[in-house]
Each structure stands twice: as C-alpha cells, then as structure tokens.
Amino acid sequence: MITTEFLLYIAAGAFAGLLSGVFGVGGGIVLVPILSFLFMGLHFPETHLMHMVLGTSLATIILTSISSARAHRLKNNVNSTLVIKMAPSVIVGTLLGTLLASQLHSVWLKIVIAAFELCIATQLMLNLNPSPYRSLPGSIVLGLVGGLIGVASSLIGIGGGTLIVPYLIYCNLDPRQTIGTSAAIGLPIAVTGTLGYIFTGLTTQFVHPLPQPSLGFVYLPAFIGIAIASVLTAPVGAALAQRLPILVLKRLFALLLYIVSIKMIWGAL
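The structure assignment produced for this chain is given below.
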C-alpha cells in the first residue's frame, strides 16, 4: 500500500528532477527542507537528523544527475573535457567535506556562499555580462575551484550546480553548456558524498541506532520514492532548458539563486 509519506517523496523527487534538468543543479534546495520536515515528523533522532537528510538527498542526486547529464549530452550540452578536469578535485573536496560535516560549524560558510550567490544572481537578473576577455582558467585553478565546490556541497547540503553554474557563466561558457556540464559534474559529488555518509552512518549506528530501513545515513524509503520520480522528470527539464531563450534561462536561474541564498542566510541566523 502506497502511503502519504511515500507520495510526498515522489512529489519532491519529481520537482527535484525538473530543477536538475532545467538548471543543472542537484535538487538539494528542494529535497533538504522537505526531508528535514518529514524526518522530524517521523521523530528521527535530532542528533543525526540532518546527517540522514543530507545522506539521503545526495543518494537520490546520483540517479537524477545521471538522467539529467544523459539528456543534456544527447543535446551536445556537456563539455566532457571540463568535466574530466574538475571531477578529481570535486571528488576529493566532497569526501573531505563529508568527513568534516559532523565536526565543523557551517554558519559562516553559508553566509559567505550566500553573499556570493546574491551577487551572481543580481548580475544574471540585470543581464550584466562578464568581461568578454574572461575565459576558463587553467587546470590548476579549475582543480582548486572544484575542490572548494565539493567541500561546500557536502558540508552545507547545497547542490554543486548552485556554485558550478554561476562560476562557469562568469567564465563566459555558454549557459546551456554550463547547465549540462554542471549536471555531469554533479554525479561525482553525489556518489562521493553518498559513500561518505553511508560509511559514517554505518560507523555511527554501532553506538547510536538509526531509523530503519536505512543504509548508513541513507533512509531507503525516501531514496526509492524520490529516485523513481526524479529520473523521469530530469529529461523533461533538460528539454525545457533547450527551448528557453538564454535571457529567460539566466533570469530563472537568478531567481533560484535568490531563493537559495535567502534560505541559507535565514538558516544561519
């Protein structure tokens, strides 16, 4: 029998998949608050509630990223060279952030990232184009940027796309290719982060029992419901991104950044 709880997971997954396809983000902006609310209603232990939220959210993003990246690749919107250059450092940064998640306070990190995203959102909303002479940096700088994005993504529960997309647009990469490339880079972030949360969760449950059925910090009923829906809607979002005018796409993404930034600042206060 399908429960109301499972239907909510499916609805959240459908919306997250659509966002992933349109904007190249992981969908965490939708999933993290929804899962937080639902897990509190299920009386998950407060000590590990956010770990369960982040672990489950990242796990669902694996399938969403695969579906979204595949759809964008079929439209030639994935810069494979750029993905290869950034993926190793993104993996290292994500793993480091996952291991540090329970040790560090992320308030100031949230505020700094939110301020950065507010600036980028304003630039996109006003259609202020970056210097035409600016281009993608060399492999070393791309590696450092990828590492920082990986750390931030796993530490504060944002999809890598909310940082990757603005940065690549700042470097004058075509917006549609930016979105497709971001979706592809989101896959190693999701895989590495999920493995980290599974490992730390399995270690934790020897001391503190976790809600069942779960795999480490991944709550399986939520993972299944969200994954099913998001895989189906991500290609729809990718098709929509292909049809939208560039200026409309920029301003819609700017609106998303405003929402993310305000939410991060509100949560940090």
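Interim note for the steering committee: The first helix runs from residue 4 to 23. The CA atoms of residues 98 and 196 lie 6 Å apart.
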